[in-house]
Structure formats: C-alpha cells, structure tokens
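Data card: per-record layout.
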Amino acid sequence: EPFVRIFNAPAVPVQAAALQAVAKCGELGQVYASEVCRMMFKGHGSVRGAAIESLQAMGARGRAFYAEVETLWDDLEVGHIACAALQAFDAAAKMQEPFILEEGAVDLGYSREPEGGPLPVALLFPGQGSQYVKMMTEVQDLP
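The structure for this 143-residue chain is written out next.
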C-alpha cells in the first residue's frame, strides 16, 4: 500500500502527486477508491481537487462515489472540479444506456456514435479574462 502511505505525507505536493498517479492508472486505480474519496474532504485544495479528478478517472468505480462528490459542488476551492466530475459521471452513464426509440418515433439517422467519426465541437468563452490555466483539462478526454 505505498500510495496510501504517500496520501498521508506531510507535504501537500507529495499528496497531490500520489493522487494524480492513481488518476493516471484509470480504472486500475480503483483499489484505492475509498482512500481517494477520504482525501476529497481533508487538506489543501489542490489535494482535494486531485482526489476528485482521480475518482473521475476511475470510471464506474469512481461513479460509485457520486453522492460524495456531489456534496462538494458548491465548495469554493474544488466546486468546479466536482461539477466537471459529476458531468463526466452522468455522460458516461448515458453512453452505457441502450439507445431505444420510443414507439412511433422516426429514426432520423442520428446515433450516439456517428458513422464518420466524432462530430467537430466548438467551445465558446464569454470573453477575455474568463480563461484560467488548464481550464480545458476537464473536457479534453470527453467523447
């Protein structure tokens, strides 16, 4: 359990780095999910944010902590990270649902996975000064 020991290191950057390492493991990092969840509620904002991002990277296992992440949506330090994680959890759940037309509906050829590959996406910002460092990291891996 080397990660668990590092989670409790006295240095904040070490804790955040350990959580980011677990996030890089993706679904393989799920064995640490409960400990990562605990880290969302204690310590420095960078550690708490890294914990939320780590759960988000765990896929379905991270989604099991949806209620815990949801309690942080209005937190001033990590609320934006929690909101991004909740949106990712919801989007992943919708992608797993079967796509079934309602009775009487006409299939117009749209699907969740277009035949020609993903559709181009444009992101709009409200204006100069609204950007922040690494602001697109929350959406860069979304389909």
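Known properties of this structure: DSSP finds seven helices and no strands in the chain. The longest helix spans residues 79-96.

See the next section for split statistics.
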